[in-house]
Amino acid sequence: MKKFLALLALSVSLTSAASAQQDPKAAKILDQMSAKYQAMKAFKASFTQTLENPTAKVKENLSGDITVSGTKFRLKMNGQEVINNGQTMWTYMKSENEVNISDYEPDDQEISPSQIYTLYKKGYKYSYVQEGKEAGEAVDIIELSPEDRNNAVYKVRLSVSKKDRSVKSWQMFKKNGNRYTFRISKFTPNVPVDATTFTFDKAKYKGVKVIDLR
């Protein structure tokens, strides 16, 4: 489950760590992109995730949607629902009608659809790669490299819209040969949320089995 969450669960690091070695052109674009998302009270995104490993001849596609507000999130993907209120995390598995409850530990996470907007601020070096196009839209492509050489991820590549500085997609390259591509298919800013959005309501899941791992 932690492996699943490391890819798609949500944690937002707000620690700033600029470095003189960073590419100033990339820094400007990333700062504009990050400010755009952090100014929103909440947002919802639909996305697709593609896992590829050419050596193992693997290619898998998954789709999901996520609602985010600060460090809180609600993720639906592949028959699972992951809900986090910033302190507690509920992982519901539809096929088993079971929910696991655990303490939320953001340090266990790697990269996610919300973390990507602030990922560059801590523990990564970044540089501008080139201009490109995605779905006919002009984008700036920026590459991030972790400062920790023990990180299982050795490279992250972001495609940022030149028009409005939204993230169109990103790729995560891992040392084991796996490459994950995330593409945003629909984005809705400032969606209405309240406390119930980011909590698990047992009453809505008839007969659910609760396993408390805290």
TrEMBL record:
Keywords: Lipoprotein, Signal. Pfam families: LolA (PF03548). The keyword RNA-binding does not apply. InterPro entries: LolA/LolB/LppX (IPR029046), OM_lipoprot_carrier_LolA-like (IPR004564). The keyword Cell membrane does not apply. Residues 1-20 form the signal peptide. This is Outer membrane lipoprotein carrier protein LolA.
